[in-house]
Amino acid sequence: KLTDLLQWYVTTFRDPLMLQPPEWFKAFIYCEAFLQLPFFPVAGYAFLKGGCRWIRTPAIIYSTHVATTLLAILAHVLFHDFSKSGPLGPQTLRERLVLLSVYVPYLLIPLLILFTMLYSPHYSHAEKRKRK
Fold first, then answer.
1. Distances from the Cα of 89 to the Cα of 14, 54, 99, angstroms
2. Distance between CA atoms of 110 and 128, rounded to whole angstroms?
């Protein structure tokens, strides 16, 4: 059933990156598996508990990493010549924009995290330590 779901997604959104990923995209997948996914439970704990200012630096690293990888993916979707990829890739501007709409939330959420960590007074104030 998961294979059918993948096939449906690829044909509906014309996303060749999922079936025939280029080497650079595979590198992003490995980064996601080994760096980003382990971050999720840690960040979930910190955000649900609240008051965890120590999450600021890891969240900034995570969000800038994800935003950087998504910029490369979005540029590939917008500018790559998919005519050589066979029937999988988007052929029209509308198809490119539809595929772009699938990836854009993965850019917006890390940017929201980044701006929260940088500009929220809750996370940006230095922690005051007691003097002994």
1. 5, 42, 10
2. 28
- The answer to whether position 58 is within a domain reads yes
Which range marks the domain in which residue 46 is found? 2-123
Read off the pTM: 0.83
**pLDDT tens-place string over residues 17-71:** 998 899 999 999 999 999 999 999 999 999 999 889 999 999 999 999 999 999 9
Number of domains in the chain: 1
The model's pLDDT over 4-32, given as tens digits with 9 standing for 90+, comes to 999 999 999 999 999 889 999 999 999 99
The b-or-e profile of 25-62 (16+ CB within 10 A means b, else e) is: beebeeeeeeebeebeeebeebeeeeeeeebbeebbeb
Q: Is there a domain that residue 21 lies in?
A: yes
Q: Determine, yes or no, domain membership for 66.
A: yes
Sign of CA pseudo-dihedral 119, 104, 16, 33 = positive
Examine residue 131 and state whether it is found in any structural domain, yes or no: no
